[in-house]
Amino acid sequence: xxxxxxxxxxxxxxxxxxxxxxxxxxxxxxxxxxxxxxxxxxxxxxxxxxxxxxxxxxxxxxxxxxxxxxxxxxxxxxxxxxxxxxxxxxxxxxxxxxxxxxxxxxxxxxxxxxxxxxxxxxxxxxxxxxxxxxxxxxxxxxxxxxxxxxxxxxxxxxxxxxxxxxxxxxxxxxxxxx
Length: 178
Ligand SMILES: [Zn+2]
Hints:
By secondary structure, the protein is of the alpha+beta class. The chain has eight helices and four strands.
């Protein structure tokens, strides 16, 4: 369960980081990670869904986000990277809680992380949703996606943010629109 207060804090953090990095939509997650001092590593066949490997690394980066290859499922790749950024800030303290960052180890997501079984998984999904779909742009996209019949074409909304339809639907529900 992520409380309303926690959700607002997570949203403020995700909005703040996106603004700081001056990212438009669809959010360029690879540019975001590079700007934050990290690196994305695409790997297949590992036992967990994704992870954050704490640095410093030999390539000069402060963290690696390890995810399954982009080519397999580009939208999942984008959401996974954003989800791991959520763990990086919320649960490892990167840049915002230096003492926590100093103490923490790597963060490994289980293969079932999308189901959101734990508070940390829900929080990371919340972060990813806000990071990839800013509220103002989301509402504008909804306005643009109204059909002649007065319905919302959710596929069109999802395309604006380069996310899956289910991610766009979830964001709409979180904003209390659907
Ligand atoms: Zn996770």
